[in-house]
Design a protein that fits this description.
Rossmann fold, 2 domains, six-stranded parallel beta sheet, 15 strands, globular
């Protein structure tokens, strides 16, 4: 391998061609970040056609105990591991596999699994798993996070952490035209929010005494009062406070992750919203909604929190959210300009298949261990 000194001064070992790079991923989930950050890029890497470079990527859920199975992989990735079983798998891998093959074990994570707000339905589960999560991160040879903020929070558990941003698969999300280019202005404005139930306090899960959520009281009240004025679409979850008007809201149950893009496209929203309370948990989130909403062609309004600092319209209060909803609803030119600005700001990150994002994915892993393509 040829040596080259990187920007930080450390020596990078350049991988000789022809090169074969093997990734094996153990998925912690298959309906969210496991799909976005492992399944999609792995599938696309297998189809990269570059002279003298070959990727072999696989993801599985059932752990393989035979050490020889791992001998041809460059990296072994555990995604979102937290349980007692994951701890046992780590112990086996480190004692039985790494004793024979020096393949690095990398912890891949897209969320903060500690310091989760009490009102979040995932809080009780991960509170029980907190010691496991910390141990698994400490025992990993390296970590990959989705945001710099998440890296900053987790560095207390592992010093070797790199960031790979989220991207969308272009072959699924492409060819969406801006909503302002084709909408019938005589119809009601469609406003969309899409997300999981962990954005809202769920009394039936965590008790009636716990309050909270990412939608403020004024915004919820505004939605309630404007169900006849706008066509509100909520996908994935609904605040408890809106269930009294659920017959006036278009509610879409959560879709299989592979059907999710198709479902969002079918709604054809004019405006999308992404409210988030300003706390540590949300500051660690990725900007995935800005990517999805931009790919839909819809103008969007975001909370003024770390994940969305680069977007055009950011709000600190419900009053600001309501102001921009009304401005966008009545000003098609403003919607068009907002979408164009946001598209310009995220276009380099938008798709896995563009801007060398797949090669950057592989190089991030290689650089972590002193190698590069």
């Amino acid at each position: 391998m040829a040596k080259k000194r990187g920007k930080t001064g450390k020596v990078l070992m350049k991988v000789k061609r022809p090169a074969r790079i093997g990734f094996l991923g153990y998925l912690g989930d298959v309906q969210g970040c496991g799909t976005i950050r492992v399944m999609y890029p792995f599938m696309l890497l297998n189809h990269v056609r570059e002279k003298e470079l070959q990727f072999n990527t696989q993801y599985i859920s059932a752990y393989v105990t035979e050490p020889n199975f791992y001998k041809d992989f460059t990296f072994i990735q555990f995604q979102r591991s937290a349980t007692d079983q994951h701890v046992n798998l780590y112990k086996h891998f480190k004692s039985q596999v790494q004793s024979k093959f020096k393949v690095p074990l990398v912890y891949e994570i897209d969320d903060l699994l500690i310091d989760i707000p009490e009102w979040n339905y995932a809080s009780p589960y991960y509170k029980k798993m907190e010691d496991n999560v910390k141990w698994l991160m400490e025992q990993s040879d390296g970590m990959i996070t989705s945001t710099p903020r998440l890296k900053e929070v987790y560095k207390q558990f592992n010093k070797k952490i790199e960031v790979i941003p989220n991207h969308l698969p272009k072959f699924i999300w492409q060819d969406i035209y801006p909503a302002h280019d084709y909408k019938d202005q005589n119809k009601k404005i469609k406003i969309l929010w899409a997300g999981s139930q962990n954005h809202f306090a769920m009394p039936e899960i965590i008790g009636d005494d716990i309050k909270g959520g990412d939608f403020g009281a004024e915004l919820i009240n505004y939605i309630r009062k404007t169900t006849d004025l706008y066509e509100w679409h909520l996908m994935g979850a609904m605040p408890t406070e809106l269930r009294g008007v659920k017959d006036k809201i278009h509610f879409h149950t959560w879709e299989n992750i592979f059907n999710y893009p198709r479902k969002l496209k079918s709604i054809e929203p004019d405006i999308c919203i992404a409210p988030l309370t300003d706390n540590t948990f949300n500051s660690c989130k990725s900007n995935i909604k800005s990517l999805e909403y931009t790919a839909l062609g819809a103008s969007s309004i975001f909370s003024d929190v770390i994940p969305y600092k680069s977007m055009s319209i950011r709000c600190k209060t419900d009053v600001e959210f309501i102001h921009y909803i009304e401005k966008m609803a009545t000003d098609i030119d403003f919607r068009a300009k907002t979408w164009k600005k946001d598209h310009q700001r995220v276009k380099d990150q938008l798709y896995w298949e563009e801007n060398s994002n797949l090669k950057k994915y592989a190089n991030t892993y290689l650089n972590m261990f002193g190698q590069k393509l």
